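Checked the freezer inventory, then went back to the computational side. Two predictions to log before the end of the day. The first one is the construct we discussed on Monday; recording sequence and tokens without edits.
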Amino acid sequence: METSTSVANNFSLQITQFILMGLPGIHSWQHWLSLPLALLYLLALGANSLIMTTIHREPTLHQPMYQFLAILAIIDIGLATTIMPKILAIFWFDDKAIRIPECLVQMYAIHCFYSMESGIFLCMAIDRYVAICHPLQYPSIVTNAFVVKTTGFMVLRNGLLMIPVPVLASQRHYCSRNEIDHCLCSNWGVISLACDDITVNKFYQLFLAWILIGSDMALVFSSYALILRSVLRLSSAEALYKALSTCKPHGLCAQNERAQTGLSEAAWAEKRYVHHITPALGDL
């Protein structure tokens, strides 16, 4: 009888929704950030849309280098739209509740978009490596088909590898505290509320960080190291400047990504767009 009562109590404590408390450490005055964040969100949508429109309408920009920038702009819009509307709903309407299925969908989308950015950065680095280190082979290697295939591979890779993240989180038992000390459903924020063992979740998260994102960034750094070695061999200062200038949009994007890797997803999403879009627009 006692066992039955315990099981019934555990079942009754199974929560069905989480409460997003907002930005960590500033809960008391975070509502003052609603207007700046709304403006940043509109800026992200407008600037990325401008990038895509400019590349689409300008025939001279119909090159793999700028096509990857357009794809990155699409990813930025997707990531911003995944995160910002809920943040603004929390600040404006105190709508902190989010059902578990909705939370898991947001978690999956955030992980997909973030890893897609890493993958596109790698594609951009490969594009510049071939263009500078193997210029004669560039037209035959980096074609429109190359852009389509690499982008499709990244979508498939990240879409499939991210499925276990929400699936594993959904298998955890949430029976007590349901307050997430954040403004979005991050994997760590959700599974830290679980009442049972989360070792598998932690292991898979680390696997993704080191094997997926880590390998992408390692290859990006290697590509640019080879590019730097190649351009330093150029005897002409003008040729050296021209070669390095072709990497400027990609280098700025990668620099922003590295600088913000250690930040939380929300702060990263809120700050990234202005720094990322402005250099890209300057190059267009």
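The second is the one RB wanted added to the comparison set:
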Amino acid sequence: MIMLILLFGCIGCSSCTPSIPLDDNSKKDDNQNNTDSAQDSASDSAIVDTAPIPPCPVMEEEPNGDYDRAQSVPMEQWICGDFYESSQAAADLDVFVFETIEDGWVKAWARGQDLGSSADLMLTLKQNNESALSTFHLSSTDPMLVVPVSGETITYVAIQEQFNDFGDNQFYEALFTSIKNPVEYNGTEDENQESATEDNNGLYRAQSLTSGDRIFGTISSNFDRDWYSVDLEDNERIEINFEANTLGSPVDLVVSLYSPATFDDPTIEAVKIRNNGLLGNSFDPRLVHTSDEAGTWGILVESYTSTGSDFYWYVMDVVVE
């Protein structure tokens, strides 16, 4: 009887046998695999995270010390370079090259001392036979150029330390970028470089101006002299302002005003000469004068340093009142 009770009791239970322990080896294996994967991922992440990050998208690559070995670089990306070691050459020259797609304006900017570098930089831009040079911009010793360039043409930019210094703190960053036209004007200089009689390089070929003219011109060579003329009444005031170096042009201008008598006697000296503006660090001249006689007055625009190319541009604004 007791045996029957036990038998039926067992039938009523879901299980009368002791629970069989689960084999957790598979769980351990899964956990181990997960742990190994996590460790591998962590290791991979650690490798990526600890890799040195370049300070610039583009790094200078030696040798690039002359135009034949210029380093090809993209526009619109910062470039990092240095003058850590001396060379047998007179200077450690870093030359870069890029191509512009269409006619337009290019800004070439190198900065060193503004970043804490000891390098006193000089920047030269060259396209075909035209070149421009900059050693500063406004109150900064770091150079900048803003110049008009031709499309589908190779452009070179050379950067060097002016005094050929080198060392651990001789570094720089550079950027070459396309920009929109930085100036507005309503007229252009009348200059035919292929004809000596169809330019404004002489007093008697001076280009006539009126009040409100904003003329875009260039000091296209070391010997270029741009002559203009304007008619003034007695006691009329003329104001001439320039936009050039302040906006990145390499030109350092000087403007001279000549009285009507100069057209009869070219040896007469200028009435007034200006080679700087209102601000102490402005290389763009501002000339103001009140006429003491009616007639045609002469205006001469030239380079103060006797240097020029098609990159040495200016905009002259004339107001008579």
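For RB: The domain at 58-179 is CATH 2.60.120.380 (Jelly Rolls). DSSP finds two helices and 20 strands in the chain. Let me know if you want it refolded.
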